[in-house]
Amino acid sequence: MRIGIDGIPLISEGSGIGVYTHRLIEHLAELDENHEYFLFSFMPGAQLNFSSPKIHMVIHKTPALLWFLWALPRELEKWRIDIFHGTNYLLPLTGSIKGVVTINDL
Fold first, then answer.
1. pLDDT tens track for 22-52
2. Cα distances (Å, whole numbers) of residue 54 to 31, 65, 106
């Protein structure tokens, strides 16, 4: 399975959501031998500090306003993502890809 994850919180890894996202990806790849993980971001500052070859970073240079509405759905289709995890309360507008969202501090 190809799992997409919102990599935008990795911009500020010192934040709670950034730490959560980093650790989630790190441990999922460590525990899981059968899936690939794709981190999607529109911000080039997101760091890929993972040793696993199963983790890939996809950076798309699109303005933030167009990211979830236009660019991210196209990138998910392009990379044949099976499920997308919105790590910071947002999911892209796409009907063909399953999604799960984390809403922090609710």
1. 889 888 888 888 899 999 988 766 556 677 8
2. 11, 29, 31
